[in-house]
Amino acid sequence: MSEFLAYAELGFRHITDPGGVDHVLFLLVLAAVYRRSDWLEVLRVVTAFTVGHSATLLLTVTGALRLPAAVVEFLIPVTILATGLENLLVRGRRSALWGGRYRLLLVGAFGLVHGAGFANYLRSLFVERIAVPLLAFNVGLELGQVVVLGAAALLFLAVDAALRPLARPGSWSPVRLRAVGVSAAVTLVAVRWAVERSPW
Fold this sequence. Notes:
Helices cover 74% and strands 0% of the residues. The chain is mostly helical. It starts with a helix and ends with a helix.
């Protein structure tokens, strides 16, 4: 197996195996508010997250940025918690502040935190050359995110179909019911992790 494929597989596994469950939960809570017709907005938000984590991954792995691992591990569930709370508090994306476009900045900033988490794992694997391993690992991460988000989309469609009989005119839509349920559950998990990982 080539070096590129080996590191790409590492990146893919890092996001999809149980050890990366905090990143998977972040992706789930991030996607929980979107409808099937919102695919363009989902693409924008995921791109903002990718840009954020790629930037920090590069800076941290090359030694240009040093962040204490304990602080990063604490901040990751804080980003999940903040996203869950935002999902619960903002009912209408288009009527939100700046038409909801602030979410791109928020998610980009959260990507910076998650990138530091990826980098702490990756730094120990590098010996000398970093360009190929870094690029390959990042490609693997992105493919893993696509798989996670694709699985989430199928799950959310099934949940929406199951919730449709519960929806009444003038009440919450199946998508809102799903968003609230997923966000509340993930937020509770994130609170627990933040408390357990607190460096203070």
